[in-house]
Specification:
Chain lengths: 390, 289
């Protein structure tokens, strides 16, 4: 340590106190980060611990008999003692199968079918079952006729009133349709508006007003966009209620300001000398934008668009108003058909009373989060990869 | 058309020798210029320019001679860049700018309503202070404008034009094997020569240079100056510079700007050795500015 005493205006007698204050402030900030991180960890732990079991499902080995009785009601294909264990959904379609394929009559088939949700919950979490049934299940489990398997059905079927059969497929397809429409609607309009405002528009009262209003739109609560979508698309243009088209257009309204704002930021990041150089080469303004400004700002524009879409994807409130929070068991096959989306599916499951839907809800959230994280990671990747240093 | 392509000066590193030769050339030309006046390529008469309410240029008159380098010198904010940007109407891009007076190129008023600004700018090229190659390949940087203006028809002509322009800018030897790499990956001096190559690719008559070497190191600066000296055989060049030695080395004529006026305009030799005005003398001797 230096023994020399420094003098001068910077020689503050309270210097130690200043350092202490600095340390204290730093500690507060670290504390804040810690709290934020703890919340995230708690959130993920909770969701994953509740939801991971939904990706497994217990199955029971049954023998299906195709006979006169089962041609009338699928349940009769099962031994009577199995009827309380195997899911009704497993035998529901047998009469139809037999109608399509009369050769099945008189044959038997051994296969694994999902167990009823209550039994699944009993095996997973030990939830209560009537004593008689519990003994039967335990016996089957001991003899190896009940096993746990990866629940592919969760990803291949739509919603169901039988929790053991419910899946997210129809919601995922609905989300794809809705996001596709949002993208097709909001991306060209948003990018072109931004290009006009940033590159062509004169700076006057009118453009300033438009600018302020677009910025305000981005802060409007999403449910209000739902009301606008209801009034405009469904009531005025007659778009079918609950359809992917209605939902996509409504979310498009919501995403539009986000795309405009991020596109303008990306355009503004292109340095002016590039424009000047192009102008000096005899480019018209449109050529400057098309050949120089847009290619340079494309990564930024795409990043903004992906983030806007990710936000739209997680949106539920405006979709309630256009009727997309509904029981939709079948995946939509077109944009005019009733559809639901992932967060809406989560919402629907969360309001179901059966215990089995709790884990479905958590699993749905996990899928939704995984897709959102993938989208955001893509945005970050694009930004990193194509980021230009001038 | 491009038969007499200028080959690169082999001794880029021995720029000092080249510079001295360049200087003697200039002074002899300046002497002849006094007797046999060269053609006036660009003529500015009573040019006044306002940024909003602020007048930046006051009644400027200047003749820029064909196949000569004319340097515009003066302290910062004296209006020399503003004036330069009048010559290819780059000031049109700033909404608040108002220009009065007349600027003619080969006797034609460039601010006449019939004049197409795109054509004007392909006749009057520009090189900027900070090298600003497009974020595209070296090839594309040069090929872009000729293709845009429909100067070349076939791929082969374009290849030839790119090669020719790069040779003319003294860059061919350094980049011929990597034409597809990004122009922005070159060094600062190379980027600036790429910008010059880009400017001459559309075969302009006049090249405006706005402090083309001010962001470059001394060696790259020397290369650029050599290049300017070579280019003046074919092009008329107006160059804004803060570097008085540079003006003395490359320019046949020099205009001294001060507070939006041209204080003195003469051949470079006379202006630097025997200035008429006290202000000019003060500036070139470093008393202010």
């Amino acid at each position: 340590m230096s023994t020399r005493r420094l003098t001068g205006s910077a020689n503050d007698p309270h210097i130690r106190r200043r350092y202490r204050a600095e340390k204290r402030f730093k500690a507060y900030c670290i504390g804040a980060v810690g709290i934020a991180f703890a919340i995230i960890v708690a959130f993920f732990t909770d969701i994953i611990s509740q939801g991971y079991t939904a990706f497994w499902q217990h199955q029971v080995q049954v023998t299906l008999e195709y006979n006169d009785r089962s041609a009338r009601l699928g349940q009769f294909a099962l031994d009577s003692d199995m009827r309380d264990i195997a899911s009704r959904g497993a035998t529901r379609s047998i009469p139809l199968e037999m109608e399509d394929n009369p050769d099945l009559m008189g044959t038997t088939d051994q296969r694994w079918v999902p167990v009823k949700a209550e039994i699944d919950q009993y095996l997973k979490h030990g939830h209560d079952l009537p004593a008689e049934l519990r003994q039967q299940v335990d016996a089957l489990a001991d003899s190896g006729r009940i096993q746990s398997a990866f629940n592919t059905r969760f990803f291949t079927t739509g919603d169901s009133k039988l929790p053991e059969l419910a899946g997210i497929f129809s919601a995922a397809v609905g989300t794809l349709y809705v996001l596709g429409i949002t993208l097709v609607f909001a991306f060209p309009i948003g990018v072109m508006s931004a290009v006009y405002l940033e590159e062509f528009a004169p700076d006057n009262k009118l453009t300033q007003t438009i600018e302020v209003n677009i910025n305000n739109l981005a802060a409007v609560p999403s449910i209000i966009f739902g009301l606008l979508g209801l009034a405009l698309f469904i009531n005025f243009f007659g778009v079918p209620r609950s359809s992917a088209l209605a939902g996509g257009l409504t979310l498009g309204l919501m995403t539009l300001p986000i795309i405009i704002i991020s596109t303008r930021a990306a355009l503004r990041a292109v340095p002016d000398p590039i424009r000047q150089g192009a102008f000096a080469m005899g480019c018209s303004r449109w050529q400057v934008v098309r050949d120089h400004v847009l290619p340079s700002s494309l990564p930024g524009i795409l990043t903004g668009t992906i983030i806007g879409l990710a936000q739209a994807m997680g949106e539920t409130a405006p979709l309630i108003i256009v009727g997309m929070i509904a029981y939709i068991p079948e995946a939509p096959s077109g944009i005019f058909e009733s559809a639901t989306v992932l967060p809406a599916q989560v919402f629907t499951w969360a309001s179901e009373p059966q215990q089995a839907y709790v884990e479905k809800t958590a699993a749905g959230i996990m899928v939704l989060l995984a897709v959102l994280l993938t989208l955001n990671a893509t945005a970050v990747f694009l930004r990193r990869k194509f980021e230009r240093r001038w | 058309m491009y038969s007499e392509a200028t080959t690169e000066s082999p001794e880029t590193t021995e720029s000092v020798t080249a510079m001295t030769t360049g200087q003697t050339d200039t002074s002899t030309q300046a002497q002849t210029a006094g007797t046999a006046e060269k053609n006036v390529k660009v003529k500015a008469e009573n040019v006044r320019l306002w940024y909003g309410q602020t007048q930046a240029l006051h009644d400027l008159n200047l003749d820029i001679h064909e196949n000569e380098v004319t340097a515009l010198i003066g302290p910062s904010g004296c209006g020399k860049s503003s004036f330069l940007r009048c010559l290819n109407r780059m000031n049109d891009l700033i909404p608040s700018v108002r220009i009065e007076g007349q600027i003619t190129l080969d006797g034609e008023d460039i601010y006449h309503p019939d004049v197409d600004v795109v054509q004007l700018r392909s006749n009057v090229g520009m090189v900027f202070q900070k090298p600003n190659p497009f974020p595209k390949s070296i090839y594309e940087n040069i090929a872009y404008a000729p293709r845009l203006h429909g100067i070349v028809n076939s791929r082969r002509d374009l290849d030839e034009l790119v090669e020719h322009s790069l040779k003319r800018a003294g860059l061919w030897r350094e980049v011929s094997d990597r034409l597809q790499t990004p122009g922005t990956a070159l060094s600062g001096g190379q980027q600036q020569r790429l910008c010059i190559a880009r400017a001459i690719a559309v075969n302009p008559e006049v090249i405006l240079m706005d402090e083309p070497a001010s962001s470059l190191d001394p060696l790259a600066t020397a290369t650029i100056e050599e290049l300017i000296d070579e280019l003046k055989d074919r092009y008329t060049i107006a160059i804004v510079t803060h570097n008085l030695q540079q003006a003395a080395r490359v320019a046949g004529y020099t205009a001294f700007f001060h507070m939006g006026e041209i204080v003195e305009f003469n051949d470079t030799d006379t202006l630097f050795t025997n200035p008429r005005e006290q202000k000019t003398e003060d500036y070139i001797t470093g008393r202010y500015g």
